[in-house]
Amino acid sequence: MLRMKQLLRTTGVLLALFCLLPAYAAEEKKREAPQVDAATGKRLNEAIEAVNAEKFAEAKVALSKLNPERLSPYELSRVEQMYASIASSENNYPEASRRLQAAIATGGMDDAEILSARFQIAQLFMVQEKWKEGVAALKQWFAETPAPNANAYYLLAIAYYRMDDHRNAVEPAQKAVDTSENPQTNWIELLLALRIEREEYAKALPLLKHLVQVAPEKRNNWMQLSAIYRQMEKYDEALAVTQVAYMAGHIVSESDLKALADLQAFAGVPYRAAKLLETKISKGEINADGKTWEKVSYMWIASRDYKRALPPLGKAAVMHNNGDLYVRMAEIELRNENWNAAETALNKAIQKGSLKNPGNSHLLLGITLFERKETRKARAAFQKAAQFPNVAQQARTWIAHIDNTSKS
Questions:
Q1: Sequence-ordered alpha helix ranges (H) in 215-323
Q2: ∠ CA 168-171-175 to the nearest 5 degrees?
Q3: Residue 321, helix vs strand vs coil
Q4: First-to-last CA distance in the chain?
């Protein structure tokens, strides 16, 4: 379904992720911070204040006054991280990545800080849509991380998807949802789209139920939940969901209303379907075209309410491009032995023409006239029917019956 590309059309999600550090990093027991030279600390503080004020040029000036050769590994790692922060703020992601790599190379960072830097490097690749490099960086980070968090799994899933590797996207997308106590909606939507794409409807079902529960105001969730039930051939559940959506005001378009009626009919309640369509037609919410009136009539027929089927069928017959619907009207009238109405409908059918089975129409007209005791007209109708191979034998039988009756 549509939905996946909408999830990932922009890099906004990735930019947001760049601001997130792995949750475990703050929980790691860190080493005591090494001492920083007073002059170095002053310059670093100046740079930090400038960055916080978004005065990046001033921050660079403050950092440039430091002599890298006189800095300790720890101090140098802080300088490189500051440069990385400035570059990222200026959207210079390649430079930010280079500076983070340089920070790691100083040897002045502890294990938790290195892992955080590696995660940021992976995020920077994603922001640049360098998905292959991002996956490689994330894999290195996963290999060194004792407890990967949900954000990282989601980021990896996105990277795989953007590489058109949907098969490998499924596992991290599932882990992103499973490892979070309160997974974000877009994480669930990504996993849902992957499951639907793989036609894994049973696994998609709980995801959609969750989305409906947390965001009942979103129409698309209801419609997708109904669609999943239909794919699983659980039509009663599909109808129940769609009815709730209808009562909540989510089903208002003509196509959705017709789809609801179709589902009602398929689920065994065609009476409700016919009533729904007639009500919406009367309110102008559904276009009263020939196909719609024909559908209404067939739903009344399915309900075995043949009397109520006739008016909409008559409206459809007027709009139809041939006389076949008049034949259908005649069949209903014949069922109820309404010979006059049946004759009228059949004459209209023959007059309109372009019938799929013209011989049958003449045959039915002959039967109708015979029941009305108009044997001469009936015989003429049967003679016309006899010209059509598919009903010729029946027509000749009727002609013979009329002839024998008249002689006796």
A1: 219-231, 235-247, 254-266, 270-282, 290-302, 306-319
A2: 145
A3: coil
A4: 72
263 contacts 239 by C-beta, under 8 angstroms: yes
Secondary-structure percent of the chain, ordered helix, strand, coil, rounded to 5:
75, 0, 25
Overall size of the chain counted in residues: 408
**Per-residue pLDDT tens for 198-213?**
999 999 999 999 999 9
Smallest Cα–Cα separation from 152: which of 165, 133, 162, 139?
139
What domains lie within the chain, and their CATH numbers? Answer: 38-147 (1.25.40.10), 252-316 (no CATH)
Separation of alpha carbons 382 and 361, rounded Å: 10
Based on C-alpha coordinates, what's the Rg of the chain? 37
pLDDT of res. 2: 36
What DSSP line would sit under 132-145, residue for residue?
HHHHHHHHHHHHH-
CA atoms lying within 13 Å on the CB side of residue 393: 1
Contact (CB, 8 A) for 166 and 41 = no
Q: What is the pLDDT of residues 138-189, one digit of tens each?
A: 999 999 998 899 999 999 999 999 999 999 999 999 999 999 999 999 999 9
Tokens of 174: 């599932």
